[in-house]
Each structure stands twice: as structure tokens, then as C-alpha cells.
Amino acid sequence: MPIHFSCTMCGRCCHDLRLPLAIDEALDWIARGGEVQLFCDAIVWPQEPQQTDLLAQHRKRRSFAAHSGRLPVRVTVTLVAAFDGPCPNLRPDMSCGAYDRRPRVCRIYPAEVNPFLKLDPAAKACPADAWSDAGPVLVHAGQIANADTAALIAQSHEADERDRVAKAHLCALLGYDSAALANEGFAVYAPSRHRLEAALRAARESGAQFDHLQPRSSLPWHIITNRSTSLATLRSIGANARQAEDRFRPAEAPAYLGFFDEDISDSDRRN
Ligand code: SF4
Ligand code: SF4
């Protein structure tokens, strides 16, 4: 069944967002007065995946290699424009005040950037009339049918691959060395706008010195989790793992955005 779509300009999708940005987009967002955070997660990477493992290859293209303790990992850093309530660019008439410079992800919505996610209209903010059969076809036979949207998604994947070298350097410049265990949450760093802008510019310019085919971080990474079984498993296989701790978090430590309730026991805390 084809999925038809036509934007009604309702503005619902421009509230309470965590918008993923490419480095150029993040610099543009900061220049407009917006805040950008770093969402970091890491996955254990004992060996290189087969070419046929499309999910692992997708993650590899978005991440850089690193070590946590004696464990090889891949770290994914996502630059995120974060805001609660309306987007700072949203006008009272629900039009976008930065329309010509809006992030790529805004142009792609409601289609999915992640190739492993199927577009589910019920999961989107768009009202029912946006999906009327009178609109143009957005998805046909599971594929994006709109050429502009397909091109934007491809550009987004290219930017992810291109930016990962500079992101490894960015973390080194900022001293950010903690990531949540992938699929459990994110370690969230919120540097000041000025500090992040300077580091982003430096990382982008010096990124050319790094190996673009094998992006790697020389930092000793920590993996943080709020689950006791993950903590025990990570430690048992040699990772430098620690519990997420928001109550006594040092100022420079990241916040933890978990997908699961905390279940770390007091004895885990003492270890
Ligand atoms: S940049 Fe524009 S399109 Fe994107 S969330 Fe903000 S108001 Fe909406
Ligand atoms: S929620 Fe959907 S219909 Fe409404 S402005 Fe966003 S993309 Fe358009």
C-alpha cells in the first residue's frame, strides 16, 4: 500500500524535539542562538562485522573506533538541537522562521532517516488529513518514492559518515569520554554554546588530519549504564564501566538519558 503525504503546516512536529544535526547544521544552529548537546552511546565491537550484516555496517558508518578498558567499542556521537516547547524558529503562524536553512531532518520528516525503520503514520505527529490519498506518494513498496526526500536521506547518511572523524576529534578537544551502552540510553553532554562552537570549528578543520576510513578515538572511554546486569557484564569482559549517577554527578560529567528504570543496587554502587 503506498503512503501518501502532504504537509498541512500544522506545526505539531516543531515542538519538544531532539533534532539530530550534522556539524555544519550544528554551527548554523548555534549561530542562530540555539543550544546543541552531544548524545553519546557505545557498542561492544569485538570483531569487524560481515558485509552482509547491514545493521552493523550502518552503525559503523556513523561511529568511530575506541577502547573502553581492554574492550574494543564503537562510539556514536549525535549532535542534537534540544528544546522543550516550540522550536525557537517556529513563528506564531506555525511557519518555520528558518525555512531556507532548516536542518535536513526537518526536511525529511515524516520519512525516516534510519533505513531500518519503516514509516508508521500512526507514530507521527501529522494529523490524519496529511495522509490523504489526494497527496503525493511518499512511500511505495517500502521505498521512499519522493526523489527529493530520498536525496536528503542519502545526504544525511553521507554527513554522518563524513562527520565521524571530526566528532572523534571534538570529543578529544572537549575531554568527553563517556558513552551510554547502546540501546539502553545516551550520555548527554551540554557544553556552553561558545565552547562548543570553538571546538566544532577546530574539530572540523583538523578532521582532515585523521584517517577517514578508520576514524578512531585515542581517549580511554567509559561506558555508563543504570542497569546492574549490564554493569556486571561489561566489567566481566574488561570494559571500563560505571553506573549512571545523576545525584552526585560532577559538573563535567554527562547526564544520563536512560530508556529503562534504574536497577543498580547499593552493593554495585560501592564497587
Ligand atoms: S527548524 Fe523550522 S521546521 Fe525545524 S523544528 Fe524548527 S520550526 Fe520546525
Ligand atoms: S506535523 Fe506533519 S503535517 Fe504538521 S507541520 Fe509537521 S510535517 Fe507538516
Description:
The chain has helices at residues 23-31, 54-61, 104-108, 147-174, 193-206, 228-236, 266-270, and strands at residues 3-4, 15-21, 36-44, 64-68, 71-86, 137-140, 143-144, 178-181, 185-189, 216-220, 222-225, 241-243, 255-258. The model has no long low-confidence stretch (mean pLDDT 92). Strand 4 and strand 5 (71-86) form a beta hairpin. The strands form 2 sheets. Strands 2, 3, 4, 5, 8, 9, 10, 11, 12 and 13 form a 10-stranded mixed sheet that branches. A 3-stranded antiparallel sheet has the order 1-6-7. The longest helix is centred in the middle third of the chain and has 28 residues, at 147-174. Helices cover 29% and strands 26% of the residues. The protein has one domain (3-270). With 271 residues, it is α/β, with parallel strands linked by helices. Bound molecules: iron/sulfur cluster (2 copies). Residues 14, 17, 87, 89-90, 96, 98, 102-103, 106 line the site of one iron/sulfur cluster.
Features:
10-stranded mixed beta sheet; alpha/beta; binds iron/sulfur cluster; 13 strands; 271 residues; 7 helices
Tell me, what's the shape?
A: globular
- Whole-number average pLDDT? 92
Helix-strand sequence: EEHEHEEHEEHEEHEEHEEH
* Cα-based radius of gyration, to the nearest Å: 20 Å
Low-confidence stretches: none
Output the structural class: alpha/beta
Major sheet description? 10 strands, mixed
List the domain count as a whole number: 1
Task: State the helicity in percent bands.
Answer: 25-40%
Number of strands: 13
Pfam family, one: CxxCxxCC
Protein name: Flagellin N-methylase
